[in-house]
Amino acid sequence: MVEAKHRDTWIEISKRDVQKNVQLIREKTHASTIFFTVKANAYGYGLLQMAKACAEADVEGFACGALDEGLLLRENGYKQLVLMLGITPAKYAKLMAENDIISTVSSVEWLLDAHEYLLANGTTSKLKVSLAADTGMGRIGFTNRTCLENAINFLLKHQNSFEYLGINTHFSEADSVETDYFHMQLARWHKLTDGLPMPPLVHVANSGAAIYHTNHVPTDTLRIGTGILGMEPSEGTVMPDDYLAPVISLHSRLTFVKHLPAGEGISYAHEYTTQTDEWIGTLPIGYGDGWLNAMTGFQVLVGGEWAEIVGKIAMDQMMIRMPHEFPVGEKVTLIGTQGTHTITLSNASKHAKLPPWEFTSGFQDRIHRVLVVV
Ligand SMILES: Cc1ncc(COP(=O)(O)O)c(C=O)c1O
Fold first, then answer.
1. Dihedral, CA of residue 95, residue 100, residue 105 and residue 109, to nearest 10
2. DSSP single-letter state for residue 292
3. Pocket test for ligand 1, best of 24, 38, 85 (most atoms within 8 A of CB)
4. Residue 122 pLDDT > 90
5. Which residues of 308-327 are buried (b: 16+ CB within 10 A; e: fewer)?
6. Quick one: which atom of ligand 1 is closest to the CA of 37?
7. Which fold has domain 15-229?
8. How far is the CA of 37 from the centre of ligand 1 (A)?
9. pLDDT, tens digit, for every residue of 236-269?
10. Using alpha carbons only, what angle is made at residue 363 by residues 71 and 53, rounded to the nearest 5 degrees?
11. C-beta of residue 95 within 8 angstroms of C-beta of residue 72
12. Among all residues, which ones are annotated catalytic?
């Protein structure tokens, strides 16, 4: 997709706030290895921009959803650890090995296949492996201790081809006030892994587990998304949602301004009609950017004053009703601060009736992302 650099709609990513969140998590957990989850364009924040901000905040690794995300990081010169979170087809074993990408593995069969691919392709690089244990997420991973042990033995026996670098699990409910399921998963983790040969990276904690269950889980290695992105994992239910620094803001500029009499229809299907004489501004952002149609009625900021989004949101444009005239080019803030008012990401995602990470994951690549120092 084209990144629209010549359009006045952009996301600002604050390096200072990324650093603050990394520091907060580091101080709380004393982790020596933090993987930042860059998957899905870093939850829509911007993969390369967030990678840069995290690298500057001394994050040790990146966790990916698709192999191409890891390859993109390598192409851009990142030397940090790169971990695949899901299962990558065994036929890419060589590609992963040669790009020093850690493969997450859930079966001995996968290892057998990958071994054949590595031998057939005559690769000299070892494939780093993290073994996944499914303790109740029900997604990927070993559920049987004997199979897990067989996988470990296979890795240890074939050290010319593999490096047994990690073992992991993923909690399905680490961010809830209800902790029974979390503790059930933790008990299964111990039952599955206690006494087995452990690799250097034992990583079980996402943001919720790292922040709320610091004393229950190993925290030397973490996989963190929401926490570094400044989104409170429980949306304020387990802890107040103000201790993380908000990392992004979203802005646009007026492209067109008009004064309309009462009774004029605005946008498709003219679902909104001006009530009186009104100043209507047009902005170059729409549902094609991931700014969903559900955002109609949401209040944005122009010149430090509130302005409501009126009418249907179109693919590339939307209209706002302004308290008075503003010039073309005036900055409008959709998420962030103007003057004494702030629109939080959570204000916006609640309007769309989505969790913040689901809302931002929909932000399209075409929104220009800018890294700022503060
Ligand atoms: C396996 C795995 N680990 C870690 C994370 C990061 O989770 P969070 O954003 O809650 O920190 C995810 C995200 O979904 C994940 O799937």
1. 40
2. -
3. 85
4. no
5. ebbbbbbebbbbbbbeeebe
6. 6
7. TIM Barrel (3.20.20)
8. 7
9. 999 999 999 999 999 999 999 999 999 999 999 9
10. 55
11. no
12. 39, 268
Q: Is 90 helix (H, G, I), strand (E, B) or coil?
A: helix
Tokens 């399905």: give the residue.
172
Map residue 116 onto helix, strand or coil.
helix
What are the boundaries of each domain within the chain? Answer: 15-229, 248-343
Instruction: Please tell me the predicted confidence (pLDDT) of residue 124.
Output: 86
**Ligand 1 binding residues, C-beta < 6 A:** 37, 85, 170, 206-208, 223-227, 233
- Cα distance between residue 61 and residue 67, in whole Å: 15
CA distances from 285 to 2, 18, 77, 271, 312 (A): 14, 25, 32, 19, 12
Q: Which residues pair with 130 in a beta bridge?
A: 104, 166
* Tokens representing residue 291 in the block: 């700014």
Q: Residue 344 — φ and ψ, nearest 5°? A: -85, 160
Q: Which amino acid belongs to residue 105?
A: V
Q: What is the spatial distance between Cα 333 and Cα 250, in angstroms, rounded to a whole number? A: 6
pTM value > 0.85: yes
Q: How far is CA 185 from CA 40, 139, 146, 148, 237, in A?
A: 26, 13, 18, 16, 21
| CATH classification for the domain delimited by 248-343, as one of 3.30.590.10, 3.40.50.150, 3.30.1490.20, 2.40.37.10 | 2.40.37.10
Q: Which of 206, 224, 239 to mutate to test the pocket of ligand 1 (most atoms within 8 A of CB)?
A: 206
Helix (H) or strand (E) holding 224: strand 221-224
Alpha carbon nearest to ligand 1 atom 9, residue: 225
Nearest CA to ligand 1 atom 13: 225
CB 185 within 8 A of CB 141: no
Unique residue bearing structure tokens 């094609």: 288
Contact 84, 101 (CB under 8 A): yes
| Token pair listed for 143 | 């559920």
